[in-house]
Specification:
By secondary structure, the chain is of the alpha/beta class. It has 11 helices and 10 strands. The longest helix has 18 residues, at 124-141. It is globular. It starts with a strand and ends in a 13-residue tail after the last helix. Bound molecules: adenosine-5'-triphosphate (ATP). Adenosine-5'-triphosphate is lined by residues 16, 19, 21, 39, 41-47. Residues 7-254 form the ABC transporter domain. It holds the Pfam family BCA_ABC_TP_C.
């Protein structure tokens, strides 16, 4: 039995001149799913994340979230509808503390501008106490309790990635888009990330992740969609995708079929 679609993408197309970065793409993320989007460099993964989150506008097609069409909304309107994302290149406020970074992610719910939250100003003071408690809980959830008041930029790379996830979670998203969450992580950090994503799945947060770490993707995800040159070339559970000849061929020039065994390299 398949769950209702939370994200429903229909015929999505984005062109840069003569090049289709994303072409006639259909994609569904079901409620509660933990799905992955993979493909060789330049396949269109980041372009698709930018389209979903509203940083880029499509040339064709539709994006629906929770039964409402969102593809004409601004990024912040989409965020208010329950969409959150992390970025391939971290986008934390490095000079401010970990907890303040989470509080910034919460501003959709607490009310008030970034500046007002950071300066603890005016009528937001009352809401602030509850927000700080919630931010603490989120930091504990991702395993960062011990560094609440450390500047974000002083944290290890793996901790900064987890802080980005905490900040994204602060907006209470229905769907979390994770752009290469394991990039640059050591094996211990990747193992901790995997546990974190499993905890999020247990909390019924739907996730779509772009990830090059095949071991992580193969072990963790319900469904994998494979892009190549902007088009979907395969989709299905990990076992089916890793055995798919079109997928192996798409990666052959990159790292070869061994890429898909899901073994730690
Ligand atoms: N702003 C842009 N202008 C022109 N072409 C672009 C632009 N952004 C992306 N592209 C092209 O669109 C295609 C898809 O790029 P995209 O970055 O989405 O791929 P990707 O799958 O995320 O790659 P990677 O794994 O390297 O991050 C590529 O051919 C890329 O060169």
């Amino acid at each position: 039995m398949s769950a209702a679609p939370l994200l429903n993408i229909k015929g999505l197309t984005l062109r840069y001149g003569g090049l289709a970065a994303v072409e006639d793409l259909d994609l569904i993320v079901a409620e509660g799913a933990l799905d992955a989007l993979i493909g060789p460099n330049g396949a269109g993964k980041t372009s698709l994340f930018n389209l979903i989150s509203g940083l880029t506008r499509q040339d064709d097609g539709e994006i629906w979230l929770g039964g409402a069409r969102i593809d004409r909304l601004s990024p912040s309107q989409r965020a208010r509808r329950g969409l959150a994302r992390t970025f391939q290149n971290l986008r934390l406020f490095t000079e401010t503390t970990a907890i303040e970074n989470v509080l910034v992610g919460m501003h959709l719910h607490v009310g008030g501008s970034l500046l007002e939250i950071l300066t603890r100003f005016g009528r937001f003071r009352q809401a602030e106490r509850a927000a700080v408690d919630a931010a603490r809980e989120l930091l504990a959830f991702v395993g960062l309790s011990s560094v609440e008041y450390a500047p974000a930029g002083s944290l290890s790379y793996g901790d900064q990635r987890r802080l980005e996830i905490a900040r994204a979670l602060a907006a209470k998203p229905k769907l979390l888009l994770l752009d290469e969450p394991a990039a640059g992580m050591n094996p211990a950090e990747t193992a901790a990330l995997r546990l974190l994503l499993e905890k999020l799945r247990a909390q019924k947060i739907s996730m779509l992740l772009v990830e090059h770490d095949m071991s992580l993707v193969m072990r963790l995800c319900d469904k994998i969609t494979v892009l190549n040159f902007g088009r979907k070339i395969a989709e299905g559970p990990p076992d089916a995708v890793r055995a798919n000849p079109a997928v192996i061929e798409a990666y052959l020039g990159v790292k070869g079929a061994a890429h898909f065994r899901g073994d730690a390299a």
